[in-house]
Design brief:
Layout: E1 11-16, H1 22-35, E2 40-44, H2 51-60, H3 68-80, H4 83-91, E3 95-99, H5 102-110, H6 119-123, E4 134-139, H7 142-147, H8 159-172, H9 179-182, E5 183-187, H10 192-211
Parallel strand pairs: 1-3, 1-4, 2-3, 4-5
Helix pairs in contact: 1-10, 2-3, 3-5, 5-8
The structure holds ligand Z5A.
Length: 220
């Protein structure tokens, strides 16, 4: 039987807390989708390769200082500069698995608890970005995260910041906009294989739906 043509690729985002295994699972999922005969591309934010991404990377490595709003807007601009590429890739039937997106953008900037940088303020520059077809949120307890080694050296890798980030991700559920509802929570505390299986069983049905045209063309 001839395969139906693919309407478009699916846009799947992986979000999660520090050391939850996003990068590990993005690769694993992309490989498995590729093995199943699909075109797949991985992306990550921040994309440190563009001029804007390099400014973000220097900031995260404490090589430069920036006002909280400025770096927030750079993280957002770093997504906007990829919008055409995202839309073109999906349109040609290629599925995108993306490591972090604007959910991280909102939650990390607001975790600084700067009184002039609320989650609503943080959301504004993200409005209009392509909306993912599914967001997998890898949830890891503080205890499990600690077992996976200490903090790295980058700016946000402190226990205070990570505690606020966790609270903000939980609070996303209460935001009237649809951000919270987008998140499919998966327990990231199991082995790489176990977590991979849980992700696969959630993602594949969604990818199939999108490929067959069952999606709404929406933006944030
Ligand atoms: N940020 C922001 O502020 N605003 C934005 O708009 C965006 C991001 C997009 C850099 O991001 C920082 O930018 C980040 C958020 C902020 N700050 N922090 N923290 P990044 O994506 O470049 O860096 P990252 O997310 O911190 O790092 P990462 O390396 O991508 O982490 P990960 O993907 O969660 O984990 P991993 O590398 O896959 O695994 C971590 C370790 O655990 C590794 O040793 C693995 O072998 C191990 N691992 C993985 N899975 C398992 C399981 N299942 N069991 C045991 N061990 C495991």
């Amino acid at each position: 039987e001839p395969k139906q043509p693919i309407v478009r690729g699916a846009f799947i985002v992986m979000e999660g807390l520090d050391r939850a295994g996003k990068t590990t699972q993005v690769e694993k999922l992309a490989n498995a989708l590729y093995e199943s005969g699909r075109n797949v591309e991985t992306m990550r934010f921040p994309d440190r390769t563009s001029p804007i991404g390099m400014m973000i990377s220097n900031y995260l490595q404490s090589k430069s200082e920036m006002d909280d709003h400025v770096v927030h807007l750079l993280f957002s601009a770093n997504r906007w500069e990829k919008v055409k590429h995202i839309n073109d890739t999906l349109a040609k039937g290629c599925t995108i698995i993306c490591d972090r997106y604007y959910y991280s953008g909102m939650v990390y900037s607001a975790a600084k608890r700067n009184p002039n940088l609320s989650i609503d303020w943080a959301r504004a520059p993200e409005v209009g970005l392509p909306r993912p077809d599914m967001v997998v949120f890898l949830n890891l307890s503080t205890e499990e995260a600690a077992k996976r080694g200490g903090f790295g050296d980058e700016k946000y890798e402190t226990s205070e910041m990570q505690k606020n980030v966790r609270e903000n991700f939980v609070a996303l559920k209460d935001i009237p906009a649809d951000e919270g509802q987008d998140l499919q929570v998966i327990d990231a505390g199991g082995s790489v294989e176990e977590v991979g299986k849980a992700i696969w069983s959630q993602v594949v049905p969604r990818v199939e739906e999108v490929e067959q045209g069952d999606f709404s063309e929406s933006s944030t």
